[in-house]
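Data card: per-record layout.
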Amino acid sequence: MDAVREARGPRRCSPRRENRQARCALLVLGLALALVPRAEAAPPAPSLVVPTPIENEAALAPLLQKLVALKARRIRRVRITHYGDSHVTSDTFTGELRARLQAELGDGGPGFVLLGKPWPSYTHALVKTGADAGAWRAERLFAKYGPGRPKPRDDLFGLAGVSVSSRQSAGAWLELRRRAPLDRLDLYVLRQPGGGRLDLVVGGQRVRWLFTAASEKEAAFAEVSLPPGTTRVELHASLGEVRLFGADLASGRPGIVYDALGLNGARAATLLGYAEPLWSEQLRRLNPDLVVLAFGANEVDNEQLTREAFARGFDELLLRMRRMLPTAACLVIAPPDRGRYRRKTGWEIPENQGFFLEEERRLARARGCAFWDQRAAMGGAGGILRFLTASPPLAQSDRVHLTGRGYRLLAEALHAALVAALARALPAGP
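The structure for this 430-residue chain is written out next.
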Protein backbone atom coordinates (compact mmCIF):
# COMPACT_ATOMS: atom_id res chain seq x y z
CA MET A 1 0.00 0.00 0.00
CA ASP A 2 2.82 2.45 0.87
CA ALA A 3 4.50 1.74 -2.46
CA VAL A 4 1.26 2.47 -4.32
CA ARG A 5 0.79 5.74 -2.46
CA GLU A 6 4.37 6.78 -3.10
CA ALA A 7 3.98 6.13 -6.82
CA ARG A 8 0.75 8.09 -7.04
CA GLY A 9 1.91 10.93 -4.80
CA PRO A 10 -0.05 12.42 -1.88
CA ARG A 11 -3.83 12.53 -2.02
CA ARG A 12 -5.36 15.74 -3.23
CA CYS A 13 -7.15 17.84 -0.65
CA SER A 14 -10.68 19.04 -1.13
CA PRO A 15 -11.34 22.60 0.05
CA ARG A 16 -15.01 21.96 0.74
CA ARG A 17 -14.88 21.33 4.45
CA GLU A 18 -12.48 22.40 7.20
CA ASN A 19 -12.46 18.99 8.83
CA ARG A 20 -11.61 17.39 5.48
CA GLN A 21 -8.73 19.84 5.03
CA ALA A 22 -7.38 19.09 8.49
CA ARG A 23 -7.75 15.35 7.92
CA CYS A 24 -5.94 15.57 4.61
CA ALA A 25 -3.14 17.69 6.06
CA LEU A 26 -2.56 15.11 8.76
CA LEU A 27 -2.58 12.31 6.19
CA VAL A 28 -0.03 14.08 3.99
CA LEU A 29 2.16 14.86 7.01
CA GLY A 30 2.10 11.29 8.29
CA LEU A 31 2.90 9.85 4.86
CA ALA A 32 5.68 12.35 4.25
CA LEU A 33 7.26 11.65 7.63
CA ALA A 34 7.20 7.93 6.89
CA LEU A 35 9.03 8.51 3.61
CA VAL A 36 11.82 10.75 4.97
CA PRO A 37 15.14 9.09 4.08
CA ARG A 38 17.50 8.20 6.89
CA ALA A 39 20.89 9.86 7.04
CA GLU A 40 22.52 6.41 6.82
CA ALA A 41 21.64 3.02 5.44
CA ALA A 42 19.30 1.03 7.65
CA PRO A 43 21.16 -0.81 10.42
CA PRO A 44 21.27 -4.58 10.07
CA ALA A 45 19.00 -7.06 11.77
CA PRO A 46 15.81 -4.93 11.72
CA SER A 47 13.86 -7.86 13.15
CA LEU A 48 15.51 -7.16 16.51
CA VAL A 49 13.29 -4.09 16.91
CA VAL A 50 9.66 -4.66 17.77
CA PRO A 51 7.08 -2.08 16.58
CA THR A 52 6.01 -0.37 19.81
CA PRO A 53 3.15 2.15 19.92
CA ILE A 54 3.10 5.30 22.00
CA GLU A 55 0.85 4.72 24.98
CA ASN A 56 -1.66 7.35 26.11
CA GLU A 57 -1.02 9.13 22.83
CA ALA A 58 -3.95 11.46 23.45
CA ALA A 59 -1.54 13.38 25.67
CA LEU A 60 0.35 14.33 22.48
CA ALA A 61 -2.69 15.97 20.86
CA PRO A 62 -1.37 19.55 21.34
CA LEU A 63 1.93 18.55 19.74
CA LEU A 64 0.29 16.77 16.79
CA GLN A 65 -1.89 19.81 16.09
CA LYS A 66 1.19 22.04 16.04
CA LEU A 67 3.04 19.69 13.71
CA VAL A 68 0.16 19.97 11.27
CA ALA A 69 0.15 23.76 11.62
CA LEU A 70 3.91 23.86 11.03
CA LYS A 71 3.57 21.75 7.91
CA ALA A 72 1.00 24.22 6.60
CA ARG A 73 3.29 27.12 7.70
CA ARG A 74 0.59 28.57 9.94
CA ILE A 75 3.25 28.65 12.67
CA ARG A 76 7.03 28.98 12.34
CA ARG A 77 8.39 26.64 14.98
CA VAL A 78 7.75 23.48 16.96
CA ARG A 79 10.24 22.79 19.74
CA ILE A 80 11.04 19.48 21.46
CA THR A 81 13.23 19.50 24.57
CA HIS A 82 14.62 16.08 25.48
CA TYR A 83 16.05 15.45 28.98
CA GLY A 84 17.97 12.28 29.72
CA ASP A 85 21.14 10.51 30.83
CA SER A 86 24.13 9.17 28.90
CA HIS A 87 21.80 7.65 26.29
CA VAL A 88 21.15 11.28 25.27
CA THR A 89 24.58 12.91 25.70
CA SER A 90 26.00 11.51 22.45
CA ASP A 91 23.10 13.13 20.55
CA THR A 92 22.81 10.00 18.41
CA PHE A 93 19.27 8.90 19.28
CA THR A 94 18.09 12.51 19.51
CA GLY A 95 20.14 13.51 16.47
CA GLU A 96 18.41 10.89 14.32
CA LEU A 97 14.97 12.11 15.38
CA ARG A 98 16.03 15.72 14.82
CA ALA A 99 17.34 14.97 11.33
CA ARG A 100 14.22 13.15 10.22
CA LEU A 101 11.80 15.74 11.57
CA GLN A 102 13.79 18.69 10.21
CA ALA A 103 14.12 17.06 6.79
CA GLU A 104 10.34 16.98 6.45
CA LEU A 105 9.10 19.92 8.50
CA GLY A 106 11.95 22.40 8.17
CA ASP A 107 15.20 23.17 9.95
CA GLY A 108 14.58 25.61 12.77
CA GLY A 109 18.19 25.40 13.95
CA PRO A 110 20.42 23.31 16.22
CA GLY A 111 18.60 24.35 19.40
CA PHE A 112 20.16 24.63 22.84
CA VAL A 113 23.87 23.81 23.15
CA LEU A 114 26.30 23.88 26.08
CA LEU A 115 29.28 26.20 25.97
CA GLY A 116 32.83 26.04 27.30
CA LYS A 117 33.15 22.25 26.78
CA PRO A 118 31.64 21.18 30.16
CA TRP A 119 33.10 17.67 29.76
CA PRO A 120 35.60 16.38 27.18
CA SER A 121 33.15 14.12 25.35
CA TYR A 122 30.31 16.65 25.06
CA THR A 123 28.84 16.26 21.58
CA HIS A 124 26.10 17.87 19.52
CA ALA A 125 25.29 16.38 16.14
CA LEU A 126 25.07 19.78 14.45
CA VAL A 127 27.53 21.92 16.41
CA LYS A 128 31.20 21.61 17.34
CA THR A 129 32.24 23.37 20.56
CA GLY A 130 35.57 24.13 22.19
CA ALA A 131 37.25 26.20 24.89
CA ASP A 132 40.63 27.25 26.20
CA ALA A 133 42.04 24.26 28.08
CA GLY A 134 41.71 24.54 31.85
CA ALA A 135 40.14 27.99 31.71
CA TRP A 136 36.53 27.02 32.44
CA ARG A 137 35.08 25.26 35.46
CA ALA A 138 32.00 23.08 35.00
CA GLU A 139 29.51 22.61 37.86
CA ARG A 140 26.75 20.04 38.00
CA LEU A 141 25.23 17.44 40.32
CA PHE A 142 26.77 13.99 40.67
CA ALA A 143 25.64 10.98 42.67
CA LYS A 144 29.18 10.92 44.15
CA TYR A 145 31.88 13.60 44.24
CA GLY A 146 35.62 13.10 43.94
CA PRO A 147 38.51 13.66 41.53
CA GLY A 148 37.13 15.21 38.36
CA ARG A 149 33.74 15.62 40.05
CA PRO A 150 33.98 18.78 42.18
CA LYS A 151 31.12 19.65 44.49
CA PRO A 152 29.16 22.65 43.12
CA ARG A 153 29.02 25.88 45.08
CA ASP A 154 25.24 26.27 44.69
CA ASP A 155 22.20 24.72 42.99
CA LEU A 156 22.06 27.16 40.06
CA PHE A 157 22.45 24.59 37.29
CA GLY A 158 19.99 26.13 34.87
CA LEU A 159 18.17 24.69 31.89
CA ALA A 160 20.55 21.83 31.03
CA GLY A 161 21.78 21.01 34.53
CA VAL A 162 25.32 22.39 34.15
CA SER A 163 27.09 25.74 34.11
CA VAL A 164 30.63 26.73 33.13
CA SER A 165 32.47 29.69 34.58
CA SER A 166 35.79 31.46 34.30
CA ARG A 167 37.46 34.08 36.51
CA GLN A 168 40.25 34.78 34.01
CA SER A 169 40.55 35.91 30.42
CA ALA A 170 39.21 32.87 28.62
CA GLY A 171 37.79 31.93 25.26
CA ALA A 172 35.19 29.48 23.99
CA TRP A 173 33.68 28.89 20.57
CA LEU A 174 30.99 27.09 18.66
CA GLU A 175 30.94 26.17 15.00
CA LEU A 176 28.31 24.53 12.83
CA ARG A 177 29.14 21.12 11.36
CA ARG A 178 27.22 22.05 8.20
CA ARG A 179 27.09 25.05 5.92
CA ALA A 180 23.58 26.29 6.71
CA PRO A 181 24.25 29.49 8.70
CA LEU A 182 22.83 30.77 11.97
CA ASP A 183 20.46 33.71 12.13
CA ARG A 184 20.19 34.26 15.89
CA LEU A 185 21.83 33.29 19.17
CA ASP A 186 20.14 33.58 22.55
CA LEU A 187 22.72 33.45 25.33
CA TYR A 188 21.80 32.15 28.82
CA VAL A 189 24.07 33.64 31.52
CA LEU A 190 24.14 34.39 35.25
CA ARG A 191 24.41 37.92 36.53
CA GLN A 192 26.13 37.98 39.94
CA PRO A 193 28.34 39.96 42.31
CA GLY A 194 31.82 40.13 40.83
CA GLY A 195 30.53 39.37 37.36
CA GLY A 196 32.72 40.09 34.38
CA ARG A 197 32.50 41.00 30.74
CA LEU A 198 31.60 38.74 27.82
CA ASP A 199 32.30 39.59 24.18
CA LEU A 200 30.72 37.77 21.22
CA VAL A 201 32.85 37.80 18.08
CA VAL A 202 31.95 36.75 14.53
CA GLY A 203 34.53 36.86 11.75
CA GLY A 204 36.93 38.82 13.92
CA GLN A 205 34.35 41.53 14.64
CA ARG A 206 32.63 42.05 17.99
CA VAL A 207 28.87 41.82 17.51
CA ARG A 208 27.80 42.15 21.16
CA TRP A 209 29.24 42.60 24.62
CA LEU A 210 27.65 42.50 28.04
CA PHE A 211 28.59 42.83 31.69
CA THR A 212 27.37 40.15 34.07
CA ALA A 213 27.82 42.06 37.34
CA ALA A 214 24.78 42.46 39.60
CA SER A 215 23.99 42.90 43.28
CA GLU A 216 22.64 39.34 43.52
CA LYS A 217 22.57 36.17 41.43
CA GLU A 218 19.91 36.21 38.71
CA ALA A 219 19.19 34.82 35.27
CA ALA A 220 20.06 36.98 32.29
CA PHE A 221 19.68 36.58 28.54
CA ALA A 222 21.25 38.19 25.50
CA GLU A 223 19.51 37.68 22.17
CA VAL A 224 21.90 38.50 19.33
CA SER A 225 21.10 38.84 15.64
CA LEU A 226 24.05 37.42 13.75
CA PRO A 227 25.58 38.65 10.48
CA PRO A 228 24.43 36.80 7.34
CA GLY A 229 26.35 33.60 6.72
CA THR A 230 27.45 33.10 10.34
CA THR A 231 28.71 29.56 11.03
CA ARG A 232 31.13 30.26 13.89
CA VAL A 233 30.80 32.35 17.06
CA GLU A 234 33.59 33.06 19.56
CA LEU A 235 33.09 34.11 23.18
CA HIS A 236 35.70 35.94 25.26
CA ALA A 237 35.38 36.34 29.04
CA SER A 238 37.34 38.93 31.05
CA LEU A 239 37.31 41.44 33.94
CA GLY A 240 35.64 39.17 36.49
CA GLU A 241 33.73 35.90 36.68
CA VAL A 242 31.56 34.95 33.69
CA ARG A 243 29.15 32.04 34.23
CA LEU A 244 27.36 30.51 31.25
CA PHE A 245 24.51 28.00 30.96
CA GLY A 246 24.44 27.67 27.17
CA ALA A 247 22.99 29.20 24.03
CA ASP A 248 19.91 28.64 21.88
CA LEU A 249 20.87 28.61 18.20
CA ALA A 250 18.25 29.45 15.56
CA SER A 251 18.36 29.30 11.78
CA GLY A 252 15.74 32.00 11.14
CA ARG A 253 13.72 29.53 9.04
CA PRO A 254 10.46 27.76 9.92
CA GLY A 255 10.84 24.25 11.24
CA ILE A 256 11.64 21.87 14.04
CA VAL A 257 14.02 22.64 16.91
CA TYR A 258 15.13 19.61 18.94
CA ASP A 259 17.14 20.18 22.14
CA ALA A 260 19.22 17.27 23.48
CA LEU A 261 19.87 17.87 27.19
CA GLY A 262 21.62 14.77 28.49
CA LEU A 263 23.91 14.37 31.51
CA ASN A 264 26.15 11.38 32.06
CA GLY A 265 25.06 9.47 35.16
CA ALA A 266 21.86 11.49 35.54
CA ARG A 267 18.81 10.10 37.31
CA ALA A 268 15.32 11.53 37.46
CA ALA A 269 16.08 12.76 40.98
CA THR A 270 19.07 14.70 39.63
CA LEU A 271 16.74 17.28 38.12
CA LEU A 272 15.04 17.76 41.48
CA GLY A 273 18.32 19.25 42.70
CA TYR A 274 18.08 22.20 40.31
CA ALA A 275 16.99 25.53 41.79
CA GLU A 276 13.46 25.73 40.43
CA PRO A 277 13.14 29.54 40.05
CA LEU A 278 16.18 29.75 37.74
CA TRP A 279 15.36 26.52 35.90
CA SER A 280 11.75 27.60 35.42
CA GLU A 281 12.69 31.04 34.09
CA GLN A 282 15.07 29.57 31.53
CA LEU A 283 12.73 26.75 30.54
CA ARG A 284 9.85 29.14 29.96
CA ARG A 285 12.04 31.31 27.77
CA LEU A 286 12.91 28.24 25.69
CA ASN A 287 9.15 27.47 25.58
CA PRO A 288 9.11 23.87 24.29
CA ASP A 289 5.97 22.35 22.79
CA LEU A 290 6.99 18.88 23.98
CA VAL A 291 9.16 17.87 26.93
CA VAL A 292 10.68 14.38 26.79
CA LEU A 293 11.87 12.72 30.01
CA ALA A 294 14.12 9.68 29.50
CA PHE A 295 15.46 8.34 32.79
CA GLY A 296 15.67 5.09 34.72
CA ALA A 297 18.87 3.44 33.46
CA ASN A 298 21.15 4.69 36.25
CA GLU A 299 18.58 4.10 38.99
CA VAL A 300 19.02 0.37 38.37
CA ASP A 301 22.53 0.50 39.87
CA ASN A 302 21.17 1.72 43.22
CA GLU A 303 19.96 -1.48 44.85
CA GLN A 304 18.92 0.48 47.94
CA LEU A 305 16.40 2.49 45.91
CA THR A 306 12.98 0.98 46.51
CA ARG A 307 10.16 0.97 44.02
CA GLU A 308 8.19 3.34 46.24
CA ALA A 309 11.06 5.81 46.63
CA PHE A 310 11.68 5.83 42.88
CA ALA A 311 7.98 6.48 42.25
CA ARG A 312 7.90 9.40 44.69
CA GLY A 313 10.89 11.06 43.03
CA PHE A 314 9.68 10.49 39.48
CA ASP A 315 6.22 11.77 40.34
CA GLU A 316 7.73 14.92 41.81
CA LEU A 317 9.67 15.50 38.59
CA LEU A 318 6.49 15.17 36.51
CA LEU A 319 4.64 17.55 38.83
CA ARG A 320 7.47 20.06 38.65
CA MET A 321 7.44 19.96 34.86
CA ARG A 322 3.69 20.49 34.84
CA ARG A 323 4.12 23.43 37.19
CA MET A 324 6.80 25.06 35.05
CA LEU A 325 5.23 24.28 31.63
CA PRO A 326 1.49 23.78 32.14
CA THR A 327 0.60 23.82 28.43
CA ALA A 328 3.44 21.73 26.99
CA ALA A 329 2.90 18.12 25.95
CA CYS A 330 4.91 15.49 27.83
CA LEU A 331 6.44 12.17 26.74
CA VAL A 332 8.10 9.71 29.11
CA ILE A 333 10.54 7.28 27.47
CA ALA A 334 11.51 4.15 29.40
CA PRO A 335 15.23 3.35 29.16
CA PRO A 336 16.68 0.65 26.91
CA ASP A 337 17.09 -2.83 28.30
CA ARG A 338 20.39 -3.27 30.13
CA GLY A 339 22.49 -5.79 32.02
CA ARG A 340 24.32 -5.69 35.35
CA TYR A 341 27.47 -7.54 36.36
CA ARG A 342 27.94 -9.29 39.69
CA ARG A 343 31.31 -10.66 40.71
CA LYS A 344 29.88 -13.91 42.06
CA THR A 345 27.23 -14.70 39.48
CA GLY A 346 28.24 -12.74 36.38
CA TRP A 347 25.85 -10.90 34.07
CA GLU A 348 22.15 -10.62 34.85
CA ILE A 349 19.07 -8.66 33.78
CA PRO A 350 18.27 -6.51 36.84
CA GLU A 351 14.88 -7.22 38.34
CA ASN A 352 14.38 -3.65 39.55
CA GLN A 353 14.55 -2.41 35.97
CA GLY A 354 11.08 -3.82 35.35
CA PHE A 355 9.71 -2.28 38.56
CA PHE A 356 10.96 1.19 37.66
CA LEU A 357 9.62 0.88 34.13
CA GLU A 358 6.15 0.04 35.35
CA GLU A 359 6.18 3.00 37.73
CA GLU A 360 7.14 5.32 34.86
CA ARG A 361 4.27 3.94 32.79
CA ARG A 362 1.76 4.34 35.64
CA LEU A 363 2.86 7.85 36.59
CA ALA A 364 3.04 9.08 33.01
CA ARG A 365 -0.63 8.25 32.52
CA ALA A 366 -1.58 9.69 35.92
CA ARG A 367 0.11 13.02 35.13
CA GLY A 368 -1.15 13.36 31.57
CA CYS A 369 1.99 12.28 29.73
CA ALA A 370 2.40 9.91 26.82
CA PHE A 371 4.69 6.89 27.31
CA TRP A 372 7.00 4.94 25.01
CA ASP A 373 8.55 1.66 26.12
CA GLN A 374 12.05 1.57 24.66
CA ARG A 375 12.75 -1.77 26.34
CA ALA A 376 9.76 -3.33 24.59
CA ALA A 377 11.09 -1.99 21.28
CA MET A 378 14.23 -4.04 21.96
CA GLY A 379 12.13 -7.17 22.43
CA GLY A 380 11.70 -6.87 26.20
CA ALA A 381 13.93 -8.23 28.97
CA GLY A 382 17.12 -9.63 27.49
CA GLY A 383 16.99 -7.33 24.49
CA ILE A 384 20.40 -5.94 25.38
CA LEU A 385 21.95 -9.39 24.81
CA ARG A 386 20.26 -9.70 21.41
CA PHE A 387 21.59 -6.27 20.48
CA LEU A 388 25.06 -7.18 21.74
CA THR A 389 25.27 -10.39 19.71
CA ALA A 390 23.92 -8.88 16.49
CA SER A 391 26.33 -8.62 13.58
CA PRO A 392 27.60 -5.97 13.69
CA PRO A 393 26.78 -5.36 17.39
CA LEU A 394 24.03 -2.91 18.22
CA ALA A 395 25.05 -2.66 21.89
CA GLN A 396 28.35 -1.96 23.62
CA SER A 397 30.16 -4.48 25.78
CA ASP A 398 29.12 -2.74 29.02
CA ARG A 399 25.59 -4.03 28.27
CA VAL A 400 24.19 -0.61 29.11
CA HIS A 401 24.90 1.63 26.12
CA LEU A 402 24.14 0.99 22.48
CA THR A 403 26.25 1.54 19.40
CA GLY A 404 25.43 4.37 17.04
CA ARG A 405 23.55 1.90 14.85
CA GLY A 406 21.57 0.66 17.82
CA TYR A 407 20.52 4.14 18.91
CA ARG A 408 19.50 5.09 15.38
CA LEU A 409 17.46 1.92 15.07
CA LEU A 410 15.50 2.74 18.22
CA ALA A 411 15.07 6.35 17.13
CA GLU A 412 13.57 5.06 13.91
CA ALA A 413 11.18 2.91 15.96
CA LEU A 414 10.03 5.94 17.95
CA HIS A 415 9.64 7.89 14.73
CA ALA A 416 7.43 5.10 13.35
CA ALA A 417 5.33 5.24 16.52
CA LEU A 418 4.94 8.99 16.07
CA VAL A 419 3.83 8.53 12.46
CA ALA A 420 1.25 5.98 13.63
CA ALA A 421 0.01 8.39 16.28
CA LEU A 422 -0.43 11.03 13.60
CA ALA A 423 -2.50 8.63 11.52
CA ARG A 424 -4.76 7.81 14.48
CA ALA A 425 -5.14 11.53 15.17
CA LEU A 426 -6.98 12.06 11.90
CA PRO A 427 -10.32 13.72 12.67
CA ALA A 428 -13.44 11.79 11.78
CA GLY A 429 -15.24 12.85 8.63
CA PRO A 430 -16.00 11.89 5.04
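Known properties of this structure: Confidence is low (pLDDT under 50) at residues 1-19, 24-46. The longest helix spans residues 404-424.

See the next section for split statistics.
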